[in-house]
Amino acid sequence: MFDNEHNGSVSGATPTADAVLALGIDVGSTNTKVALVAIDDTVRELDVRSVATPADADGVGDAVRGLVDTLTAGRSVAAIGIASMAETGVALDASNVPLTPLVRWDGARGAADAAALLDRFGPELFARTGVPPGPKTPLATWAWLRRTQPTTFGAMRRWVGVADLVALALTGEHVTDHTLAGRTGAYRLPEGTTPSGWDDELLDAVGMHAGMLPAVGASAVTTRGVPVVVAGHDHSVGAWAAGLRAPGSVADSVGTAEAVLRMLHHPADRAAVAATGMSIVRSIRDDAEVLLAGHSAAGALLRQWCAEEGVPEHRAFADLPDGPVEVAVLPYPRGRQTPAPDPHARLVWVDAAGSDRRTRARALLDGLALHARWMYDAQTALAGDGHPERIAVLGGPARNPEFAAIKAAVSPAPLALVTAREPVATGAAMIAVERTLGHTAPVLPARPVAPAAGDYSAAIAGFPTLARIAGISTTPEGAR
């Protein structure tokens, strides 16, 4: 329901004789997906497989190799692309033996270390990297690891992100992509005549150096000679596949977490973006800056609520009342990243007493959609441009008809739902073909989403104020 958990061939998908076959891998926060894709003037998913994402490095490597072997049995593929969640990795020793389980982005560690880095480098930290200096960044994680596990840190010779780990398992090479390197908090944005690259001063501050990190932009090959490309950050890869390829385009990627991405016409004002808690990242083709507004509780919050209510996910959000309902939800179980950062913001139900489950379900979807609209509006103000012709939306939660219709109702532009079963894995295959063969894949197909009934204008206007007030009222005493 909230992640695309499909296994098996895609009905009616038959490649043409001229189609290029490629494999795409997406190691997500919840599930790991692999898609066999045929690319010519269209993109077709021929087969998709998924498993729950393991918690350890060996498990990830074994799971991916098993899925790859299944999908390539009796077939030859031209390239393999790998996407993954960002800010997640593993420490390796000199023999590439894992020293840690996956150190995940959602592990709630390193806050003190992030604060110390911010104290030392100040606004320059964001200006250099485009990444808010929070506890989930690998830069803070490395400082935390050095402080809390000095023996492990001392034995570490390499750090690899999750997509890099899969590339290592398939090829034996340490390679990554600029969109994943850019999420570490230690990779410089290009500025003036200074190119992008690992920031030696930031790395030295946490006891690291560039030789411990993968080569950015390099490709590798399997033992069978198949090119392997780290395609990038899962949200960026899916957004590119969905059409985030020109300045002014916007995509909304909804998975365990949600990200709204907007490609810019010109470089962003670093200080203005930093104040919102958003990130500045580079586009998949590294030809423009992109604003990324993230919300850590999207599919994860929906899944959590279903478990608490004791309702199966496939039933929880069907046959809901029209909205907006009188109940309001501020969807922040672990703080708010953007556009008004507040680590103390919490999940708040407003006027929920006496409401029934269906009303609460509607309110939860409304709250998530309204927060995404708030992120979009803040991006629009930063970008200084108008609305796009359409906003592409992709990901498992967005495939729920009720949620998609609500998102369309609060959207300032027509919403187009990407119809691919695994848009990130498929996008990774598309990027691999483009980077290795020079074949530019078309944008993934999408269908228009009809808006839900109801007038959301007042809810849209009032949500930012309500979110800020409730955040203040739920702040622990002495925290401000």
Automatic annotation (TrEMBL):
Q: Which residues form the Carbohydrate kinase FGGY C-terminal domain?
A: 319-433
Q: Does the keyword Transport apply?
A: no
Do you know which Gene3D superfamilies this protein is assigned to?
Answer: 3.30.420.40
Q: Which residues form a coiled coil?
A: none
- One biological-process term from Gene Ontology? carbohydrate metabolic process
Q: What superkingdom heads the lineage?
A: Bacteria
Keywords annotated in UniProt: Kinase, Transferase
Entry's Gene Ontology molecular function annotations: kinase activity
Q: Which residues belong to any copy of the Carbohydrate kinase FGGY N-terminal domain? A: 73-220
Q: Tell me which Pfam families the record gives.
A: FGGY_C, FGGY_N
Q: Which InterPro entries match?
A: ATPase_NBD, Carb_kinase_FGGY, FGGY_C, FGGY_Carb_Kinase, FGGY_N
- Member of which family? Belongs to the FGGY kinase family.
Q: What is this protein called?
A: Xylulokinase
Show the taxonomic lineage.
Answer: Bacteria, Bacillati, Actinomycetota, Actinomycetes, Micrococcales
